[in-house]
Amino acid sequence: MFERKVAIVGYAMSDQADRIEDTREGMIFDTVRAALPQAGITRDQIGTVVMCSNDFYDGHTISNAFTVEPAAAYAKDETKVEQDGMHALLYAAMRLASGNYDVALVVAHSKGSEFEAQVALSAQLDPTYDRQFGWFNDISMAAFQARAFLDKKKLPEEVLAQVAAKNFAHARKNPKAKARDYSAAAEAIARSKPLFTPLREQTVYPVTDGCCVAVLAAEPKARKMKNKPIWIKGIGHWQEAYALSERDLTKMESAKKAAKRAYKMAGVTQPAAEIKVAELSEHFAHQELQLAEALGLCEGTSAAKNLEAGRFGLKGKLPINPSGGALSACALGTVGLVRAVEAAQQVLGEAGEHQVKGVKLALAHGQCGPAAQNNVVAVFGK
Amino acid sequence: MSEKKFFRVPSLVTMPCAWSVGPFLDRFYAELGQKKIVGTRCPKCRTVFVPPRSVCGACWKPLTKWVELKDQGELVNYTVAHVDMRGAALQTPRILGMVKLKGGGAKVTAIYGEIKGVAPDRVKVGMKLAAVWADEPKGELTDLSYFQPVSK
Amino acid sequence: MRNVAIVGFGLSKHKAKRRDVNIAELLYEAVQDAFEKSGLTPEDVDAYVFGNMHTFEGVNQPELWAAPWIGALHKPMLRITTGGTTGGTVAQAGYYNVACGMFDTVMAVAFEKQSDGNTQLGLAAIVIPEGLAMMRFSPSLSLGAAAGGGSTGGASFQAQSYCHKSGATQEHLALHVVKNRRNAAKNPYAHLRMPNLTVEDVMNTPMISYPLRYGHTCPSSDGSAAIIFTTAKKARKICERPAFVLGVGSGATDPTINPLGAATTDPSEQLACKLAAKWAYEKAGITNPRKEIDYAEIYEPFAHQEMMWSERLGLFDENQGPEALKSGRTQIDGDLPINASGGVISTNAIGATAMIRVGEAALQIMGKAGEHQVPKKVNRTVSHGWGGLFQYVCVTVLGSEPRHREK
User: Which domains does chain A carry?
Assistant: First the structure.
């Protein structure tokens, strides 16, 4: 449990698109500059800033060296998480919950138009063995996970295309998602270019540029801000084994453990009934199904059946990724924070065309590491 | 996306690295040079780690017991690669497998290898495989060239 | 507010090239050392935080692969990286993981294995993309690094400015190196241990970039460190004299490395240090650091920096750093000992270094620094870390008594 409660009290997001006309610093500056008045604060009220970026993605040793100024962090207490946006949100919340600060800025960013994602991600592999093959990258590792899951649940590959089709349909209602042609239907997605089977081009995340900013505040300050506080009711994180054969690839164990911690903290005992909308970082189509099962969001045990029955669609009982999710747009390292902001917007009623009705509790998830090795789960509510 | 053309500076940042593999992998590669595959076994949970490790993370025990695995085993997972690591299309798809070797007991971690001698649409988890070694092994990863189905 | 304490500090051996181990095995050494010294095991640890400067090894997020070797196989894990201050900010993250109420016992781990990669290229990559874009061509990184004199080249601007303002001479720079490398001789984990080093030895080394000679610069080390944080309540059951975390701060300003910033900002001013120290002291309830701090660990890869930062941290008046050094006040047996561990000038595994400043200060409070334990009683310490484009500073204040009243 946190020593004191923390809430999202403001946010801003850039488009998730290829934006070569933006510099990294310009993109950050614009987004932070939008977040501050949205939260009703000025620079002076920021106590601490938590950046989220990755040196390999930016091609910069110390990827936050030049982003201090555009991120409103000049002459401030500033630090950096080098995982995913939700990890940064978690750490910022810790810094506030400790009592040391009242207001935090969380800034996650990357520019997919400026680096080769798979080269940067393949650098995560064990240098003494895995990496030496020269064949493996983020997609191949997830492909093994997809194979294990589909085989165990006896699902056809086409189910992956169905997940993507659903999320693309949602993305059509999300003005921030601009990473691909979202008009494709499941049949076309199922015939898209194979990469590492069973994964195809359209069932794998598209890498974009993007910056996402969240303003957090601890109580009692959070209650005195411009916007209604969206409390972090519960949050948990966990990391499982790296070696694929040391994991049960069908189960998303670390996501399950992270969710367990989050639900306990939030007092959620029946997530399938209590969570009204879930924003999951499904970098690969199969991961949405696995996460839905691991996080207890299904009726029964089969996410695929729930998907088919329409439960996870925008009009369903528990919409998953009404924003379109990572399959629709993925600025690496920001994805979890985007999910958190989307979840907060759902509770606030500010999700525009992809708003789900009557959301009291929303769930957001972030991940990093090969085949979602490390996961963060959070429950947001009023 | 913008209509204008923006100036891009292509830049390949090459960072030359030379990773020490450590004494356990040092021996692993040396043994590959002898057409042998070795691992280390945890005294508590009996897991055999291949490639070998210095510590069992689950039991927090230093590992000193070496085990020689057979160069035959079972396919536990696979993917068919249609692209290379950077996304360029491969002329011929390549089957990448995770293989659990015999000779280490029930709990053995899987090693990676290319699977040849079977069509991509005929690969099945559970297939029995045998390693094919390089003619002149040098104590490197490539000494174990690939796996192929065990002929009946 | 929760009281947090340090109950264990572990180190690996630091050397120029630890080719005898891989990254994961190097990490195991520090972690196992911390467990052995504190009497704890991985089962006692609720969460981990980890950091290093991973472009130096070319392995992206090594805690993903190496978790089993640090006892973190199935645990919560956060990765914090902030350039040269990384080890210190990872330590602060360890503190925050406990202070926020989520976890009771947390291990912070940091390392660098620079022999696996190329340090100067890694450092050049801090600025290269912008530099290339500005120059509109692609020279090799090594050309760029060589032309700039590497990190020493950048630091020489700062050294020049500091020496000019404070009157620090070549002799002062040498005295600093002599003090700390002789201290390092008392520290079995240090890299350059030189019990007989003299001022002349240092003065006889070649000039790299005025006023910094080869003898004024830190080594490049492979090494790892680990610190165990826990609640005050648990700490009292684990060790006799835990080192309580009293205050933390982590300042950031604009890049001041040449040629980008040194034209407009004096690189020796170090506003980030003044701010971070101010915040940390405020939280620690310290109003007069000169009187209230008994011991300091300062991050000084270059010989002018201990003097410079001892002033910026409020331990000595501005421009009095050189005199404090010369008079012997900062020796192990002085009235304000600094870097009894040998400091960074003797040992520098970049990702771990700022964490070691925190760990070494903790050892002094705990009374566990062995041969380099200072003779006076140590109640309050300040640990400093520095990095980035000369614009990051983290400050951690530890004490022998907890900050807040215990419930």
Answer: 6-116+208-224 (3.40.47.10)
Measured in degrees and rounded to the nearest 5, phi and psi for residue A279 equal -110, 110
Task: Identify residue B9 by its one-letter amino acid code.
Answer: V
Place of tokens 């180190």: C11
CB contact under 8 A, B125 and A130: no
Could you report the per-residue pLDDT of C192-230, keeping only the tens digit for each?
999 999 999 999 999 999 999 999 999 999 999 999 999
- Can you give the pTM of this predicted structure? 0.97
Verify whether the Cβ–Cβ distance B96 to A116 is below 8 Å.
Answer: no
Q: What is the pLDDT of residues A88-146, one digit of tens each?
A: 999 999 999 999 999 999 999 999 999 999 999 999 999 999 999 999 999 999 999 99
CA distance B128 to chain C (A): 29
Longest alpha-carbon distance in chain A: 56
Q: Which of C78, C90, C245 should one mutate to test binding to chain A, selecting the residue with the greatest count of A CBs within 10 A?
A: C78
Q: In this structure, what are the phi and psi dihedrals at residue A245, rounded to the nearest 5 degrees?
A: -80, -5
Can you name the CATH fold of C4-117+219-399? Answer: Peroxisomal Thiolase; Chain A, domain 1 (3.40.47)
Nearest by CB to residue B15, choosing from C23, C73, C121, is C121
Residues of C in contact with B10 (CB under 8 A): 138
* Positions in chain C whose pLDDT score sits under 50: 137-138
What per-residue confidence (pLDDT) applies to A145?
A: 98
b/e sequence C305-334, b meaning 16+ C-beta within 10 Å: bbbbbbbbbbbbeeebbbbbbbeebbbbeb
Of C21, C24, C57, the CB nearest to B17: C57
Q: Give me the residue from A21, A197, A243 closest to B80, CB to CB.
A: A197
Pick from B13, B16, B55: CB nearest C128:
B13
Distance in angstroms (rounded) separating the CA atoms of residues A242 and A127: 13
Cα atoms found within 13 Å of the Cα of residue C219, Cβ hemisphere only: 22
Task: Please say whether the beta carbons of A118 and A283 come within 8 A.
Answer: no
B134: closest CA of chain A, how far (Å): 15
- The letter for the amino acid at A338 is V
Residue A86 to residue A71: CA distance in whole angstroms: 18
Q: Does B85 touch chain C (CB under 8 A)?
A: no
Burial C376-402 (b: 16+ CB within 10 A, else e): eebebbbbbbbbbbbbbbbbbbbbbeb
The two three-digit tokens of residue B120, written as one number: 């991509």
Phi, psi of A364 (to 5 degrees): -130, 150
> What gap in Å lies between CA A51 and CA A32, rounded to an integer?
12
Q: Helices marked H in chain A — which ranges?
A: 24-39, 55-58, 85-97, 117-122, 138-153, 158-171, 186-189, 253-266, 271-274, 285-294, 303-308, 325-328, 335-348
Rounded Cα distance between A198 and B79, Å, is 7
Q: Which residues contact A259 (CB under 8 A, 6 or more apart)?
A: A236, A271, A294, A295, A296, A365, A377
Q: Please check whether residue C25 is in contact with residue B22, taking contact to mean a CB–CB distance below 8 angstroms.
A: yes
| DSSP result, A137-162 | -HHHHHHHHHHHHHHHHT--THHHHH
For residue A298, which phi and psi values (nearest 5 degrees)?
-95, 160
Taking alpha carbons only, the member of A235, A201, A229, A236 closest to residue A215 is: A229
d(CA C308, CA C300): 9
User: What is the rounded average pLDDT of the residues A224-247?
Assistant: 98
ipTM score over 0.95, yes or no: yes
Q: Which of A346, A188, A190, A349 is nearest to A278 (CA)?
A: A346
Cβ atoms A5, A231 nearer than 8 A? yes
Give contacts of A242 with chain C, Cβ < 8 Å. 64-65, 67-68
Q: Are A67 and A25 in contact (CB under 8 A)?
A: yes
The number of C-beta contacts closer than 8 angstroms across A and C is 198
C43 burial via Cβ count (<10 Å: 0-12, 13-18, 19+): exposed
Residue C180 CA to residue C357 CA, distance in Å, equals: 13
